[in-house]
Amino acid sequence: MANKKENGYLTSKEIRAISKENRRITGEMEKKWKRKNVPESEYITKMRDPQNAVEFDDLHSYFYTDSGVVKSVDGVSFDVPIGKTVGIVGESGCGKSVTSLSLMQLLQRPQGQIVSGEIRLNRGGKVYNIANTPQEIMQDLRGNAISMIFQEPMTSLNPVFRIGDQVDEVIALHEGKGKSKEEIRRQTIEALELVGIANSEGVAKMFPHELSGGMRQRVMIAMALACHPRVIIADEPTTALDVTIQAQILDLLRDLKDRINASIMLITHDLGVIAEMADYVVVMYAGRVVEKGTAEEIFYHPSHPYTLGLMASKPVVGRKVSELYSIPGKVPNPINMPDYCYFRDRCELKLGCCDGEYPHEIRLSDTHVVSCYRYYEEHKDEAKMNTNSNLIKTAEIAASREEVKEDA
Ligand SMILES: Nc1ncnc2c1ncn2[C@@H]1O[C@H](COP(=O)(O)OP(=O)(O)OP(=O)(O)O)[C@@H](O)[C@H]1O
Ligand code: SF4
Ligand SMILES: [Mg+2]
C-alpha cells in the first residue's frame, strides 16, 4: 500500500500507529489532571511583574489528532497588564482561540493539551500557574477570576432555559453561598441592567430565541461579568453583530472594564476594533507571536512583514478599493511546520538569510518586539534595499490614516 511519503495521504496502518502513540502520550498527560490533593507548591507561583494580570510564558498547546500533532500554539509569550486591553490579531487558525482556551483550561481534552510553558494568573497577589492548576481549583477561577465571552452567543446560551434562569445559575454557582433565590434574582436583574438591557425583568423571562443578536451578546457579557472577574477574554465578541450594535457593545465592554478595573484579552480579525480598544497588540502567525508592542507601535510602526500585510490589506477612508493588498499564499500546515521562518513562503520582503532557522525575537523598544531577520544588526543594510516596496508604502499610508486609542 502507498504511504504518506508517496502521495501525501496516510495509510490506515499509519493512522492506527499515530493514534496508538497519541493515546500513550495523552494517557500520561491525563494522569496529571486526574490527581487528587495536589500540593499548592506545584501550581502556586510568582509573577515576573506584579503589575501583570496574566503572563503567557513560552506556552505550547498541541492537539494529538489521527493525522498527527497539531502544534496550534508553539511557544507563545506575552503579558496582559492589570487594567489594560491586549488585542490579539492574526489569520484564521493561527492559535488565538487555543491560546485563550488554554488560559481557561478549556482545551478539548484528551487530544488538546498544554504541553509545556506557563500561564501565570495573578489573583490579587496569589499567582496560579494554569498549566498545572488542578481542575477543582480551576472551577473556582473560571467565572470568578477569568471569564470568557464567546463569539456566537446562540451556541453558548442554552436554548431551552429562560435568560434569567441561566444568569441566576452563574451567580448561584460563583457567589450564591447563603443567598436566597430572590437575592440571586435581584443580582441577575442588576447584571442585565448593567449591560444596558431595558426591560430587564421582561428579558429575564424570555428564551434566547426571543432576543436579538445584540441583546444575546449583552446577556453573554452580563454572565461573563456577573462575578467581577479580573480578566475578561473576549473572543470575536462583535463579529456576529452589525456595525452600530458592535460599537455599543465595545463601549459597554470598555466601560465595564474600567468600572471593575479588569484586564481584557480581545481577540479579533478587525484591526479597526483593535485600534479603538487596545493598549497593547499581539500579532500571531501560525501558532507563534511574530510581533508585539503598544497599539501605537504596532499601528504607526508595523515592522514584521506579516503585520505590514495586515495593515496594507485594511480598508481605510480615502483609499481606492483597488489599492487594497492581499497577502499571497497560505499558512503552512500546522502538523508539519517548516524549520525556517513560518512566513517565508509568503514573504515579499525576504532576504537571503531567511532560509536559516526560525528568527529569534529582536527588541525594537522596551515594549516593541519582532521576530524577523530584517531587524538583525548584521542584516539591516540588506533589508534597506527593499524598503521601497509597494507593501511597505501601502502599509505606511494605512498607518498614517489610523487613529489609535490615545491613552495607550
Ligand atoms: N479541537 C481541535 N482539534 C484539533 N485541532 C484543533 C482543535 N481546535 C483547534 N485546532 C487547530 O488549532 C489551530 C488553531 O486554532 P484556533 O481555533 O486557535 O484558531 P484561531 O486563531 O482562533 O482562528 P479563527 O480566527 O478562525 O477563530 C488550527 O489549526 C485548528 O485547526
Ligand atoms: S524573517 Fe525573512 S521571511 Fe521571515 S518575515 Fe522576516 S523577512 Fe520575511
Ligand atoms: Mg478563534
Keywords:
408 residues; alpha/beta; eight-stranded mixed sheet; 13 strands; 37% helix; binds adenosine-5'-triphosphate; binds iron/sulfur cluster; binds magnesium ion
What is the fold's blueprint, element by element?
Blueprint: H1 4-7, H2 12-34, E1 44-45, E2 52-65, E3 68-81, E4 85-89, H3 96-104, E5 112-123, E6 126-129, H4 135-144, E7 146-149, H5 153-156, H6 163-175, H7 181-194, H8 200-204, H9 213-225, E8 231-235, H10 243-259, E9 263-267, H11 271-277, E10 280-285, E11 288-294, H12 295-300, H13 305-312, E12 362-363, E13 369-370, H14 380-384, H15 390-400
Parallel strand pairs: 4-9, 4-10, 7-8, 8-9
Antiparallel strand pairs: 1-6, 2-3, 2-5, 5-6, 10-11, 11-13, 12-13
Helix pairs in contact: 6-7, 7-9, 9-10, 13-15
Bound molecules: adenosine-5'-triphosphate, iron/sulfur cluster (SF4) and magnesium ion.
The site of iron/sulfur cluster has 14 residues, from loops.
Given as residue ranges, the uncertain stretches (5+ residues, pLDDT < 50) are none
How do the strands line up in the largest sheet?
7-8-9-4-10-11-13-12
**Estimated helix fraction:** 25-40%
Instruction: Tell me the structural class.
Output: alpha/beta
Rg over CA atoms, rounded to whole Å, is 23 Å
Largest sheet entry: 8 strands, mixed
Shape: globular
N/C terminus separation: 59 Å
Strand percentage lies at 15-25%
The quaternary organization reads as: single chain
